[in-house]
Amino acid sequence: MAQLTAQNLSLGYDGSVVLRGLNFTVNEGDYLCIVGENGSGKSTLVKTLLGLQPPEGGTITTGDGLRQREIGYLPQQTSVQRDFPASVMEIVLSGCLNRCGHRAFYNKAEKETALANLNRMGAVHLKNRCYRELSGGQQQRVLLARALCSAQKMLLLDEPVSGLDPKATAELYEVIESLNKNHGITILMISHDIASALHKASHVLHVGEKMFFGTLEEYMKSEIGKMFSAEGDSQ
Fold first, then answer.
1. 130: which DSSP letter?
2. What is the layout of strands, in order, in the sheet containing 57-62?
3. Which part of the chain is CATH 3.40.50.300?
4. Which has the higher per-residue pLDDT, 41 or 154?
5. Run of H or E including 20
């Protein structure tokens, strides 16, 4: 059974539709790369998948034990967020807030989960550091650990390597690939880093005036895939 299914989906805001007739399916263990031109509706799709805004038409359904609110999310960071004055442990623990209910504290299990996810990211040694003092790559690992605290089955990553140097970018892609292949976590990733992102993907969703959904192999053989990949290689 599919974890996430979009059927005849129309996306937009304030009654203005930016995408129509979007259809795709995400199964457990998929690595879906979402690409498209600037302004094609990728950000609107993210908000809709997370339940932050309703679709203008069509449906999004979850299955295989996944609930919409259980999709872990790694957003693009603003400069203000990068300078947030909290400890790494506090940042990661905040991913457990949806489990706390009315409790004003984190319990032992939640603290163990936070440490386990930091360890999974190779960042447990940073737990007592101030978040604002970390490098960009370290901050992204911490935020991935936070996202894993809120969801264990699916992660939605919005431009996760934006602003990172080549070494940190390569390392973060390896971490994401490990989460997918070694831990069975389904990945949905929006990226402008076409060559690297597509190299890791199992499936591709291209949104915009022309749309495509299928395997990476099918995408690379398609006309839209050939054109978009060539544009990415020339940048």
1. B
2. 16-26, 4-13, 57-62
3. 1-71+154-235
4. 154
5. strand 16-26
| CA 123 to chain centroid | 19
CA distances, 191 to each of 36, 92, 223 (Å): 9, 24, 20
- Predicted TM-score (pTM) of the model is 0.88
- Inter-helix orientation angle 136-150/166-183, to 10°: 20
Domain 1-71+154-235 fold is Rossmann fold (3.40.50)
CA distance 101 to 103: 6
d(CA 167, CA 162): 13
Strand-pair partners of 48: none
Edge-to-edge strand list for the sheet holding 212-215? 72-74, 154-158, 186-190, 31-36, 203-207, 212-215
∠184-44-217 over CA atoms, to 5°?
A: 45
- Report pLDDT digits (tens) over 185-217: 999 999 877 777 788 899 999 998 889 999 999
Q: What is the per-residue pLDDT across 67-122, written as a single tens digit (0 to 9) for each?
A: 777 788 998 877 767 888 899 999 999 988 876 666 668 889 999 999 999 999 99
